[in-house]
Amino acid sequence: MIPSIFAAPRRFPAPREMPQPTYSCRINAEPIARYRPGGYHPICLGDTFKDGRYKILHKLGYGGFATVWAARDRSRQEYVALKVSAAEIHERSYELEVLSALAALNSKEPGARHIVQLVDHFLIQGPNGTHDCVVLEFLGPSVMDNNFLRLNNGRLPGQLAKSCIQQAFLALAHLHKHNIAHGDLHTHNLAFVVPSLHTLTEDEFIEKLGLPQIGFVARRDGRPLEPNLPPYLVQTTSYPAEVSLTRHQQIKLVDFGESFFTANAPSKVSTPLCLRPPEAFFGDRLDHRVDLWSAGCMVRSFELVVGKPPMNAFLTSRRSIVRQMLKTASDDLPQRWHWKWEFMDETWKGQRTENTFMEHLDDLYYDGKRNTDLMPVDVDKLGALVHRLLRFEPATRASALEILQDDWFVETRREPATKAPVQGFLQPEWFVETRT
Ligand SMILES: Nc1ncnc2c1ncn2[C@@H]1O[C@H](COP(=O)(O)OP(=O)(O)OP(=O)(O)O)[C@@H](O)[C@H]1O
């Protein structure tokens, strides 16, 4: 069978064939076209669900297959996130199944603390179909939130970055132990926990997230809107920087939209190209080890530590990504993929590519412009960790548990709590709770 990497490129219609948009909205939000049968459910601020239990207060974001809303859970007197999926993925995503399976474990393992909690779920029937709605505990901004990073020279403080890496591996170890893969690991899916938000009144909460900006939707031909569309779109909230600066240390893994049980693995993953594992490019069977490659890229890209985005993510092709993999992976391309790679890159004649990974690490980190609170020995250890993860052969990648047993983290756990570094970001109890 011809693998998908060789599929013909998608053809786009010439500009004059492009259908004219029928609707207008003067706000930067989700594409209006996704409000159609099979697409998003139209939601307005103040809407309530499940007999009035959940009241929509703000918009948290949207993705290819869902809109996510901040809501008040009037039964538990807490804020929650409502993720309302597009109707076409109803019964096609494992998100609810995986989150329910994790909730049913009721685990006290350290890794369970680093996975977003499922609060509730229900179905919504609307003009665009039947939508899954998962209710999640309310979390703060992602670790790569722009507001926070702007105040920190675009880089997480070193010890916080290290702590985020460790917490991400605790979450992965927990998932993998239960034969679950996250399938979409990247820094935007690691969110800070902000317990203080739950103490706010509704008005204070909305003020904290910023008053919602809305833009009315109109048909260009002046005719009335169909019921498939909301009367207005809401701009995604932007978290205030000071929330992150003073309070955050615990993080959780979110967005289980691409997760799967390893016994029932999909044939492809939707991870961004630059974090996608080689087995997904070369058509091998996928399992939880896809997360280990993505984790290696996430750490390797130094996005968490250096503050740089992953390797040439913009407008990149599969071929250029595999070429970068050849320079980065710590093992050779497995024999079984040679013929596929020769097909993709006719210039490749089986030669080894010089591994340049460690060369630029120090240069990138010690750029003379930003905070460099990690020691050179930390940077070396980080590099060594990445080498254990970025291996073409999935079976030879270090497991999440093995990574957690690495010297670098073991030393962290031995550090006296009073030495918890970096402007009070890391609180002593965190070290205690993650001690194994
Ligand atoms: N539990 C939560 N608490 C607070 N905000 C959340 C929560 N879950 C998601 N969000 C916000 O909503 C956004 C979209 O959520 P999520 O990534 O789960 O949706 P998605 O449709 O799967 O997105 P994508 O297609 O980009 O993967 C996130 O970037 C985050 O900002």
UniProtKB/TrEMBL annotation:
Nucleotide-binding recorded as keyword: yes
Binding annotation for ATP? K83
List the SUPFAM superfamilies hit by this protein, alphabetically. Protein kinase-like (PK-like)
Q: Which UniProt keywords apply?
A: ATP-binding, Kinase, Nucleotide-binding, Serine/threonine-protein kinase, Transferase
Q: Which GO terms describe its molecular function?
A: ATP binding; protein serine/threonine kinase activity
Listed under GO cellular component are: nucleus
- Mind telling me which InterPro entries this protein's record contains? CLK_kinases, Kinase-like_dom_sf, Prot_kinase_dom, Protein_kinase_ATP_BS
The family database entries (Pfam families) matched by this protein are listed as: Pkinase (PF00069)
Single GO BP term: regulation of RNA splicing
Task: Tell me the ranges covered by the Protein kinase domain, including all copies.
Answer: 54-409
Source taxon at top rank = Eukaryota
What's the name of the protein? Kinase-like protein
